[in-house]
Amino acid sequence: MKSGEMFANLGSIIASVMFIWAMIKQYCPYELREWVEKYCSKVFTFFYPYLQITFNEFTGERFMRSEAYSAIETFLGYNSSMQAKRLKASDSIKTNQTLTLSMDDFEEVADEFQGVKLRWASGKHYSKNQTISFYPSSEERRYYKLTFHKRHRDLVIGSYLPHVLKEGMAIKVKNRQRKLYTNSGSYWSCVVFQHPATFETVAMEPKKKKEIVDDLITFSKSEEFYARIGRAWKRGYLLYGHPGTGKSTMIAAMANLLNYDIYDLELTAVKDNTELRKLLIETSSKSVIVIEDIDCSLDLTGQRKKKVKEEEKDATPKDPNHKQQKEENTSSHVTLSGLLNFIDGLWSACRGERLIVFTTNFKEKLDPALIRRGRMDKHIELSYCNFEAFKVLADNYLKLESHQLFTKISKLLGEVQMTPADVAEHLMPKTFPGDPETCLESLIRGLEIKKQEEEETVKHKDSSTEKEQEAREDSSIKKEAEQDKEPAESDQLGNK
User: Fold this and answer.
1) CA distance 182 to 191
2) What is the pTM of this model?
3) How far is CA 304 from CA 309, 330, 371, in A?
4) What is the per-residue DSSP string for 215-274?
5) Basic and acidic residues composition bias: which ranges (predicted)?
6) Which residues does 367 contact at the CB level (< 8 Å), separation at least 6?
């Protein structure tokens, strides 16, 4: 009976309080109600030992989606999907064959950090104003709310929240669908990047390959080091070598190793230095900015003015195409100075963790200021195919680690210069299913033909050199005869 009486008294007290509050809301002025609510909230907060931090999905005047909210969403979806009772399912970021799970609205999950227990809750604000909004839905605005004891304020704000944001961003980068960007004027457009190249499949000497991989991994883990020495977190790579030596494949392997996006910058489509700077600002962190065949993109060797003057002298005023060609040549006003500022100027530090990669077939044609250390930090020469690179290609294309023909191929590769692209073409199966021995024999024939062509070229050069030498000797003999003839004629004239 006592417990029943206690609940009855409690019910009557609650009913009385609700009645009094309803009377206050109805008959008291708005200012008085606001004052009562304000100070009642303060009294409640004084006795309530927990603090709350709210992270809204959209913030700022331009209603941009909060990066903090996105990182928390990824962190909670990855770490707390097993304990939440209500989940939301969506297509996977990488493929459409699996689903990703995240907390549903108004769901709570617990987390623990250094022995401290915390609670995350997802919620949604409903707006009654039927006004135009930039949000996906004008009636709802999602948020996450973190609740913790007030004695752990310093730990949560100083350590836990940075940990959540860092882990969430790392998970987001790892699971994202990577993109390949290209520029059209001052705007980037993109497609899904799905190049299969890896360093395991790159045809290169194992020692040199390991050196590049170690350098890339060291760079990706050196954020604190770059901040300590006062340098922007970026690194430049110059890939040079003959066509077909695998420069583009190397770039794809770099991006796949570090899980970076690729920005393929076409300099001829950039109007001026200001537009180039705008493109740089719009690139994301964890990306590879590539300028392929930089010696052919624009004249950045310091000889532009000289060449333009020579073209103007050679062209006739009556040539109707001269003006049009001149306009086409000057359509891009990107200068060497603008490109250098793009690489390592003040604006280059606006986005962190980036690789800047130049490729060229002729390293000697580039301006020394463009490829010096500090701009292009590592110069990588991609040379002709040697036997070590061939073994990688044989394993990739034919699934062969050894064969009786390898000895002959090794000898020929030491005598003949053939690019990895040409070797790979010979190893391509010509029938289905492919016959590995047929492919190896095709490569041997190709190497022998190449060797014969090189020998004929050397013979032709030697014969040309001999003919030039004989011609020079004949001309010198004629000059000596003429010189001997001139004194004899002068003596005859003197006698007369």
Assistant:
1) 9
2) 0.69
3) 9, 10, 18
4) HHHHHHT-HHHHHHHT--SEEEEEEE-STTSSHHHHHHHHHHHHT-EEEE--GGG--SHH
5) 308-330, 451-488
6) 300, 301, 302, 336
Look up tokens 């695998």; give the residue. Answer: 246
Angstrom distance (rounded) from CA 293 to CA 170:
33
Query: Nearest Cα to 355, choosing from 255, 266, 270, 241?
Result: 255
Distance from chain centroid for Cα 146? 34
Kindly report whether the peptide bond that precedes residue 433 is cis, defined as omega within 30 degrees of 0. Answer: yes
| DSSP string over 312-362 | HHHS-TT-HHHHHHHHHHTS----HHHHHHHHHSGGGGGS-SEEEEEEES-
Dump pLDDT digits (tens) for 320-340: 554 444 444 446 678 878 888
Sign of CA dihedral 369, 370, 375, 379: negative
Exposure string (b/e) for 259-296, b if CB count within 10 Å is 16 or more? ebbbbbbebebbeebebbbebbeebbebbbbbbbebbe
> How wide is the angle at C-alpha 286 spanned by C-alphas 283 and 287, nearest 5°?
55
What pLDDT sits at residue 218? 96
Half-sphere exposure of 230 (CA within 13 A, CB side): 0
CA–CA distance, 5 with 14 (Å, rounded to integer):
14
- Please name the amino acid found at residue 399: K
Could you identify the residue written with the tokens 């964890």? 286
Q: What would the pLDDT profile of 435-468 be if each residue is shown by its tens digit?
A: 889 999 999 999 999 888 888 887 777 666 666 7
